[in-house]
């Protein structure tokens, strides 16, 4: 029998026996970040294609939520910091090798843009609104005038933001479950999928919701492919990667993984959306909500399982 | 200059003097530790053997904690020692997640991330790290790997040794003689 | 009497009667305030001491900061015993000072509303009470009836008091519960016991044989350091142990012996050494008596004879014996320390001594050197009165008991066992009797019959719960004590002086002894205001001064006698009747014992029982350090080592909490966690001694792990010197919590 034990020391809170340093706030932050990035990406695309009026949920209503998502997300992140009073230190340096630094800077740019974007649309959506100050009208005009430019700027930023939520985890090769290059694209696709679901929820016209149902179907299929690819990658890897994968596939988190993420978060909404497109009467908000919940569960799972996996030595 | 630690597992008795010496010297809060002792047992009675290892931050040459730190609080100083500047640390935990050795923890009272410093404050006075200085078996050696005449260079040149989790690619600088 | 007079009452129940003692757990980091400046930020003052966490007494420096707080302890580089390196217990020694569970004030047992409780008392009150009791006992029964059971530094101050008072009924568990048999066995053979620290020349040994000795698990500092030096020099180690101990893992030969059969192996080794003519012929011829008889005696003990007994293959016995012979005389068959196992322990120690004699290692480099200590004159005092009887009288049935046997003092307190020499009262100083001495039931009934029990300790150990008066002693960092005078390669003295003032109302033992002495009219024996004066006087008589010692901490001297080892040209005189190393012991023969060691089979575990083996962890000293905040951090509970195959049969899993029941139905008070490990034989279990404290006032130690001492209800007494063999106890494993057996 092989045996490994600590003679002395260790038992560090949140670190031993398993790392539990990052909890729900981080997963929630990753979820909100991905969702926000997806919404802005769709909105920017709509603006560039000049389809704002055809797809108001995409271009105007959904972006209205984004400032809230990002603010709550940042708040969740700061809640999780152990030294939050020092968080301004993030903006004293740019560290190219640190995804956390990338994320901080991208959020610093995207968050104000998202506020401006939403602000500029407010009077379109709520015509009775009246800004008291002239400067606000000037800002509104400016944003509307350069909306396309902003959209072009937002597209790469949102791709970075979406991928970043995955890369943040995959940068840690100490955690075999996270140490996969697929995590970046997977989180981006998953974020887009949740964004599509959010737009479906907000869409008033059938044409807009059915378009995003179609987009979501494609995204879910890609996502399933990426998940399979991810798992296969683990199983063709080292012993510690196999053990890491087993945490999801054949361990304490497998019910959560298979039932709540794979089945209820991907397959069921996929099937429902397909049937809905084929004409079956299904309320569109059901698959959309499932996708959103599935997206959150996926991030909770990855954060928790990743910390359970470790390099064996 | 490249500081390294070399630990002779053939002499270590797992007494944990290194752990308590560190705790006292560095005011490590109760319930936490910057170094610790592991025992690994292999085989079947009576063909069985085991190893004691005093472990700590490996002060890696390719330190993932320094790479993933968003503020530069984790940094490497002259001699290759990896340190954390408390005033720059936001306590995000990225370095903790990135360390294959679980050598870091958030300080429970002060919030910044804390870990082994190779007793940098003692080195500056020409003293050895606390753990090395107390070890009753003298199984711990500390010195400059760039100096071919140092104890550590000689030991690594002549004795079989290993590092922990070399596959993580971190280039750790705590060596174990086996 | 219907109810027991002295219920085990805990000091925590004091809330009912007296003033509640605060026992909040302040996190230790709080000691230094919130923001703790790095150690080197402040000027630290070095104050000399020697460690009191174990009996090795390593010289050390206490570093005190500007605010008068002890910041750390470091070894004294001048000290040959620790060479500037304290062991974990020494380094964590400051925890003894900072432990907030310490005894804080004198406590006196009173009866309140029909319930016995402890009440806080002033020193005046408590000392008067003790002194009056001492007077009363003296008048009623004679001073001899007041016994002192002691250990360590405080014990010495009280031994002085007791001898002045007229009682030499003094015993310490260190003899009959620990090293007595080996001291007697070696003395019978070489005329000298190995001493403490042992005179083993580990540093230069080429082969070290450890039989029931666990260097590295016991943290006898210099031995661990020298073993490590020897490993660097390529020493070959032979370890005999049913368990893969720390040092067994470093051994060239590990002989995983069947427990209780060590004697067969030792005899068989003698056989190989003699019949393969590997022994040191010249040395044996020149220095020993009885070789021919020995040769005859061990003829039958071939390795083939020993194999079925010991489970050690004949080839292994031969190879290991040859290994010893190749390195001889730089081969040490280590005398061990805690050697009270099976009741034939003096004989087994004799066998070890004989083996060393055959290898010629006594008095040889890399074997056993001739140790020397300082001659420190005694501070002037009147001669002690001669008691009518003493501890030796109580142990007259053990002809070779040259120290008080704790068990006999305890038994002399039982009415039915005693006719003329009845012990009526005890002082217990520095030893947690219920954890250091087996047979809890006997101790408890003895205590119940006592007229008076006073306990001196720094911590609310279990024994304090039985006391009529508890006197809180300050820790070693807060007091003067006797000069350390260790026997070693060269003599030395070391100073212990207070680094800080005593915390709470605790006081040094010398002060208590003096206060009591004065109350008893014995002031002539305490002719000083402060113990410092005694130290000062003594230091001036050994060519130094208190001032010098405050800077040095330890002073090393040259040897008075020339030779560290035997002078090969001269004839060595041994302090035995024959003047030679006595392989054959006429003394034993005359007293009616076997002149040579013989193998006797000991009881084996009954079905479904496993032999209970206990041992040491390097970060703890017996049961006394478990509550130390720093050392408790390192190890806060003991684990039940059990072979995985046995564990599988019993359906146990790693970390499972189980209870142990011994052959007499005694059940462990608290559960212990299972450690399935290949490091232990299938017929035994192992646990570290000293855990399973049942006094709630020890907030960190309470209920953590199981107490091996509680499970030792069967004693195998050594008829030669009264040693209490403790290894004849067997346990079975209970997976369900037994019906309430928590001690009240």
Concise overview:
The complex is a heterotrimer of chains A (313), B (178) and C (744). Chain B is of the alpha+beta class.
What features would you describe in this structure?
The complex is a heterotrimer of chains A (313), B (178) and C (744). The mean pLDDT of chain A is 93. Chain A has ten helices and one strand, in the order E-H-H-H-H-H-H-H-H-H-H. Chain A has one domain (24-308): Formate dehydrogenase/DMSO reductase domain (Formate dehydrogenase/DMSO reductase fold, Up-down Bundle), CATH 1.20.1630. Chain A has helices at residues 24-48, 56-80, 99-125, 134-145, 147-170, 183-202, 206-235, 239-249, 254-277, 285-308, and one strand at residues 3-8. Chain B is of the alpha+beta class and 178 residues long. In chain B, the strands form four sheets. Chain B has a four-stranded mixed β-sheet. A two-stranded antiparallel ribbon of chain B has the order 2-3. In chain B, strands 4-5 form a two-stranded antiparallel sheet. The longest helix of chain B has 9 residues, at 17-25. The mean pLDDT of chain B is 96. Chain C has 744 residues and is an alpha/beta fold. Among the domains of chain C are: 195-365, 3-Layer(aba) Sandwich (Dimethylsulfoxide Reductase, domain 2), CATH 3.40.228.10; 610-734, Beta Barrel (Barwin-like endoglucanases). Helix content of chain C is 28%, strand content 15%. In chain C, helix 4 packs parallel to helix 17 (509-519). The model of chain C is unreliable at 9-37 (pLDDT under 50). The chains are: A mainly alpha (313), B alpha+beta (178), C alpha/beta (744). Chains in contact: A-B, A-C, B-C. At the A-B interface, strand 1 and helix 3 of A face strand 2, helix 2, helix 3 and strand 6 of B.
């Amino acid at each position: 029998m092989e045996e490994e034990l600590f003679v002395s020391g260790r038992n560090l809170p949140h670190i031993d026996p398993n790392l539990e340093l990052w909890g729900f706030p981080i997963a929630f932050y990753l979820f909100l970040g991905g969702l926000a990035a997806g919404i802005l990406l769709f909105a920017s695309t709509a603006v560039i294609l000049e389809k704002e009026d055809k797809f108001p949920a995409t271009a105007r209503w959904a972006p209205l939520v984004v400032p809230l998502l990002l603010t709550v997300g940042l708040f969740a992140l700061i809640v999780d910091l152990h030294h939050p009073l020092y968080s301004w230190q993030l903006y004293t340096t740019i560290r190219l090798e640190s995804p956390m630094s990338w994320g901080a800077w991208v959020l610093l740019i995207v968050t104000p843009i998202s506020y401006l974007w939403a602000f500029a649309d407010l009077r379109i959506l709520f015509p009775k609104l009246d800004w008291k100050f002239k400067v606000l009208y000037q800002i509104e005009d400016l944003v509307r005038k350069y909306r396309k430019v902003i959209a072009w700027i937002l597209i790469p930023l949102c791709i970075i933001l979406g991928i970043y939520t995955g890369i943040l985890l995959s940068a840690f090769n100490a955690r075999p479950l996270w140490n996969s290059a697929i995590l970046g694209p997977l989180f981006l696709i998953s974020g887009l999928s949740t964004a599509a679901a959010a737009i479906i929820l907000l869409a008033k016209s059938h044409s807009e919701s059915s378009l995003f149902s179609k987009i979501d179907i494609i995204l879910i299929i890609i996502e399933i492919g990426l998940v399979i690819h991810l798992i296969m990658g683990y199983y063709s890897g080292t012993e510690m990667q196999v053990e890491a994968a087993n945490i999801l596939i054949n361990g304490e988190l497998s019910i959560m993984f298979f039932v709540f993420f794979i089945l209820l978060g991907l397959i069921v909404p996929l099937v429902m959306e397909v049937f809905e497109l084929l004409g079956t009467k299904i309320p569109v908000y059901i698959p959309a909500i499932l996708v959103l919940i599935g997206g959150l569960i996926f991030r909770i799972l990855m954060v928790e399982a990743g910390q359970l996996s470790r390099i064996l030595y | 200059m490249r500081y390294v630690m070399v630990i002779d597992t053939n002499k270590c008795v797992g007494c944990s003097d290194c752990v308590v010496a560190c705790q006292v010297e560095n005011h490590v809060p109760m319930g936490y530790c910057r170094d610790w002792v592991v025992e690994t047992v292999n085989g079947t009675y009576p063909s069985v053997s085991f190893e004691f290892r005093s472990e700590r931050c490996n002060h890696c040459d390719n330190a993932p904690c320094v790479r993933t730190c968003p503020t530069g609080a984790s940094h490497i100083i002259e001699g290759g020692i990896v340190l954390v500047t408390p005033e720059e640390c936001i306590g995000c935990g990225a370095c903790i997640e990135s360390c294959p050795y679980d050598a870091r923890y958030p300080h429970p009272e002060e919030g910044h991330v804390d870990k082994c410093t190779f007793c940098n404050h003692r080195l500056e006075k020409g003293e050895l790290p606390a753990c090395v200085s107390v070890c009753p078996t003298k199984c711990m050696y500390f010195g400059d790997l760039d100096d071919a005449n140092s104890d550590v260079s000689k030991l690594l040149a002549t004795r079989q040794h290993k590092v922990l989790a070399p596959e993580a690619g971190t280039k750790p600088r705590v060596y174990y003689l086996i | 009497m219907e109810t027991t007079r002295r219920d085990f009452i805990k000091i925590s129940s004091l809330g009912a009667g007296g003033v509640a003692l605060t026992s909040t757990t302040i996190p230790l980091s709080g000691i230094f305030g919130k923001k703790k400046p790095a150690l080197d930020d402040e000027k630290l003052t070095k104050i000399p001491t020697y460690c009191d966490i174990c009996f090795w007494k390593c010289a050390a420096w206490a570093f005190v900061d500007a605010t008068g707080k002890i910041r750390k302890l470091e070894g004294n580089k001048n000290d040959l015993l620790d060479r500037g390196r304290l062991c974990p217990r020494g380094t964590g020694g400051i925890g003894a000072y900072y432990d907030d569970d310490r005894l804080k004030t004198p406590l006196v047992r009173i009866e309140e509303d029909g319930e016995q409780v402890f009440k806080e008392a002033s020193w005046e009150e408590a000392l008067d009470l003790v002194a009056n009791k001492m007077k009363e006992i003296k008048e009623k029964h004679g001073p001899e009836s007041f016994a002192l059971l002691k250990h360590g530094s405080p014990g010495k101050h009280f031994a002085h008091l007791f001898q002045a008072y007229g009682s030499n009924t003094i015993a310490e568990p260190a003899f009959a519960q620990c090293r007595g048999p080996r001291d007697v066995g070696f003395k019978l053979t070489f005329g000298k016991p190995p001493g403490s620290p042992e005179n083993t020349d580990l540093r230069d040994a080429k082969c070290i044989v450890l039989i029931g000795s666990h260097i590295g698990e016991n943290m006898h500092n210099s031995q661990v350091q020298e073993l490590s030096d020897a490993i660097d020099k390529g020493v070959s180690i032979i370890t005999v142990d049913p368990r893969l101990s720390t040092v067994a893992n470093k051994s060239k030969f590990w002989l995983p012996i069947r427990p209780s059969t060590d004697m067969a192996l030792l005899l068989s080794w003698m056989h190989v050494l003699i019949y393969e003519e590997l022994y040191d012929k010249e040395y044996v011829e020149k220095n020993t008596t009885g070789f021919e008889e020995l040769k005859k005696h061990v003829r039958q003990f071939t390795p083939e004879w020993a194999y079925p007994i010991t489970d050690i293959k004949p080839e292994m016995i031969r190879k290991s014996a040859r290994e010893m012979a190749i390195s001889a005389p730089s081969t040490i068959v280590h005398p061990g320390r805690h050697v009270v196992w099976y009741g034939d322990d003096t004989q087994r120690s004799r066998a070890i001594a004989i083996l060393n004699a055959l290898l010629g290692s006594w008095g040889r480099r890399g074997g056993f050197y001739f140790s020397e200590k300082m001659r420190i004159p005694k501070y002037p005092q009147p001669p002690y009165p001669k008691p009518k009887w003493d501890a030796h009288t109580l142990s007259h049935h053990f002809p070779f008991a040259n120290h008080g046997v704790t068990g006999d003092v305890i038994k002399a307190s039982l009415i039915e066992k005693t006719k003329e020499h009845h012990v009526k009262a005890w002082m217990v100083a520095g030893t947690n009797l219920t954890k250091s001495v087996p047979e809890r039931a006997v101790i408890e009934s003895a205590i119940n019959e006592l007229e008076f029990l006073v306990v001196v300790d720094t911590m609310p150990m279990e024994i304090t719960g039985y006391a009529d008066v508890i006197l809180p002693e300050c820790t070693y960092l807060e007091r003067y004590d006797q000069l350390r005078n260790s026997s070693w390669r060269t003599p030395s003295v070391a100073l212990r002086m207070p680094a800080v003032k005593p915390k709470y109302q605790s006081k040094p033992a010398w002060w208590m002894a003096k206060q009591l002495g004065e109350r008893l009219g014995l002031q002539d024996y305490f002719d000083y205001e402060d113990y410092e004066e005694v130290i000062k006087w003594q230091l001036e008589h050994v060519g130094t001064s208190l001032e010098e010692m405050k800077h040095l901490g330890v002073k090393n001297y040259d040897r008075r006698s020339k030779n560290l080892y035997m002078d090969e040209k001269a004839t060595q005189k041994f302090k035995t009747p024959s003047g030679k190393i006595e392989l054959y012991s006429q003394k034993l023969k005359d007293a009616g014992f076997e002149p040579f060691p013989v193998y006797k089979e000991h009881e084996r575990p009954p079905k479904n029982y496993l032999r209970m083996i206990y041992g040491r962890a390097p970060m703890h000293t017996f049961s006394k350090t478990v509550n130390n905040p720093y050392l408790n951090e390192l190890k806060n509970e003991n684990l039940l080592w059990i072979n995985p195959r046995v564990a599988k049969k019993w359906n146990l899993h790693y970390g499972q909490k189980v209870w142990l029941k011994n052959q007499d139905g005694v059940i462990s008070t608290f559960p212990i966690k299972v450690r399935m490990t290949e490091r232990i034989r299938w017929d035994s279990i192992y646990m570290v001694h000293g855990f399973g404290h049942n006094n709630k006032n020890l907030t960190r130690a309470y209920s953590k792990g199981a107490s091996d001492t509680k499970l030792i209800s069967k004693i195998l007494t050594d008829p030669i010197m009264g040693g209490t063999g403790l290894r004849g106890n067997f346990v079975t494993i209970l997976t369900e919590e037994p019906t309430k057996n928590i001690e009240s």
